[in-house]
Design goal:
Elements (H helix, E strand, L loop, with lengths): L2 H19 L5 H17 L4 E8 L2 E12 L4 E2 L6 E4 L2 H14 L9 H4 L17 H5 L23 H8 L16 H15 L3 H10 L13 H6 L27 H4 L1 E3 L1 H15 L9 H7 L4 E2 L6 E2 L4 E4 L5 E9 L2 E8 L4 E7 L7 H11 L19 E5 L3 E8 L2 E7 L9 E7 L2 E5 L6 E9 L5 E6 L2 E5 L2
Antiparallel strand pairs: 1-2, 1-11, 2-3, 4-5, 6-7, 7-8, 8-9, 9-10, 10-11, 12-13, 12-19, 13-14, 14-15, 15-16, 16-17, 17-18, 18-19
Helix pairs in contact: 2-13, 3-7, 3-8
Length: about 475
């Protein structure tokens, strides 16, 4: 091989590596996400919503919508604290795996060995033992809940002492390792194991070994009542009633359920938590956990018989119909829903919080991932033309609301409300001033015209498409 050929190969290799690591520009997609979340919050009658999106180690989007407290008109912000409910399980799972790394427990250790005082009646003689692994994968056969904590109006969760007494009369629901049965009870027992094997109170262990090292200063293994009173923590609201309203719910304490559902945080802290996962997955250096340990936690450990449900060790692994795989967890408590999910392949993370219940949080987070993955080709012929004047909301009495956003030299349009905005994005090519044509998805040829009318002042008045007219909302 001569010198010039060798240099050419090195340059090609460098360019390929640079291309693989080049940062993707999501500015256009983020504009669509912003408009969609703002509209969807109104149409779904949500009190408030906050979101943060990370691209590897950078927060590329953060915003709050609506109100943390409706009556007091306290705005929802990315800094607003919420109950994160079952996302708490991820912190408990990380704690368990830290103790596993230190050799203080094994994943196949039985519950009765680790917590002799929590003896549960195994009513299936053929069952294998309830283990740490089966509790992390929700396949232990334990019931989902004990006590009446989820039932209002006061939401009083069982205490640790009450839990110990209750266990004496409990029977397993299924043979262990046979069925998936989501279990807050099982995760609460894992919290007791963390305390037992670490020699520290559960909350102290979490603070010292996870939250402080990751600098999650607004995440706590409890709900801060003073912050709830001042509005720093969002007020929780119930599901929609028949009158279209949502009632404010009381403050609650999770007690023995803290390892399963008792944490509070905000989207910025959970964005840090997402970035930590993305960082650790591509590192050889331990940080809170070893990289190999996190990979093991996010590997499929349990699959339902229909292959529709997959879990790692504490982590939910979701295969979307769009082809995107996300890993993380959601949460739902009296008055709150939340989620934190990562896409390891694209190095993206999305965390979202809503201060109401009876809402599918994945309706929002899944669409954010899908929109981020929506590829829009650039039209370079319009690089010197300002399309920003066309951006905004357009309303028509008959046709509803349409939103237009300039992205990569084109106008991108979509209607709201929409549960699947990514599938409805329409591209329009600039033809001349105030005239565009729809780009057909099948063969990229041009379809019908989209035209704009202006006021005498020069401002955009409305748009016309086929037989419809939409007035621009000021």
């Amino acid at each position: 091989m001569n010198k010039s050929t060798f240099i050419a190969i090195l340059l090609l290799s460098y360019c390929q590596c640079w291309g693989q690591n080049a940062k993707v520009d999501y500015k256009g997609q983020l504009k669509v996400i912003d408009y969609w979340l703002d509209a969807q919050r109104d149409f779904d009658r949500l009190p408030g919503l906050s979101v943060a999106i990370v691209q590897d180690q950078e927060v590329i989007f953060q915003k709050g919508y609506g109100f943390a407290n409706v009556a007091k008109k306290i705005p929802m912000k990315p800094e607003t604290i919420c109950s994160i409910c079952s996302i708490s399980k991820l912190f408990t799972s990380v704690a368990v795996m830290q103790l596993w790394e230190k050799g203080k427990l094994r994943l196949d250790d039985s519950l009765i060995t680790l917590l002799p005082e929590y003896k549960i009646n195994q009513q299936y003689p053929e069952s294998v033992p309830i283990t740490v692994r089966s509790m992390l994968t929700h396949s232990s056969g334990l019931t989902s809940d004990v006590g009446e904590g989820w039932n209002g109006p006061n939401y009083i969760f069982i205490t640790t002492e009450e839990l110990k007494k209750t266990v004496r009369n409990l029977k397993t629901l299924y043979p262990s390792a046979k069925y998936f049965q989501y279990s807050n009870f099982g995760m609460s027992l894992l919290g007791e194991i963390v305390a037992s094997k670490s020699g520290m109170a559960y909350k102290n262990y979490i603070e010292e070994n996870i939250l402080k090292p990751l600098q999650l200063g607004n995440t706590h293994p409890y709900l801060p009542e003073n912050a709830w009173k001042t509005g720093e923590m969002a007020t929780g609201y119930g599901g929609l009633n028949r009158q279209g309203g949502r009632e404010m719910l009381p403050f609650f304490k999770t007690n023995a359920y803290t390892p399963a559902a008792g944490f509070s945080s905000n989207v910025l802290d959970l964005a840090k938590f997402a970035s930590w996962q993305l960082r650790l997955l591509s590192s050889t250096k331990a940080e809170v956990l070893k990289s190999a340990t996190l990979k093991e936690m996010q590997r499929i450990q349990w699959t339902s018989s229909d292959k529709q449900l997959t879990w790692g060790l504490g982590f939910y692994i979701q295969y979307q119909s769009s082809g995107i795989t996300t890993i993380g967890h959601d949460g739902g408590c009296p008055g709150y829903v939340s989620s934190v999910m990562i896409d390891p392949k694209k190095k993206l993370g999305v965390t979202l919080m809503i201060n109401t219940q009876k809402i599918d949080v994945y309706k929002y987070s899944d669409q954010i991932f899908i929109l981020l993955n929506k590829e829009i080709a650039e039209d370079t012929t319009t690089k010197n033309i300002d399309l920003s004047m066309y951006e905004g909301r357009y309303e028509a009495y008959r046709w509803g609301e349409t939103i237009l956003v300039p992205i990569k030299g084109k106008l991108i349009g979509f209607e709201v409300p929409s549960n699947n905005p990514a599938s409805q994005l329409t591209e329009y090519k600039y033809i001349r001033k105030d005239t565009f044509r729809r780009i057909r998805e099948d063969d990229q040829t041009l379809g019908e015209e989209l035209t704009f009318e202006r006021y005498e002042s020069g401002e955009i008045k409305n748009l016309r498409l086929l037989y419809g007219k939409w007035d621009k909302v000021k």
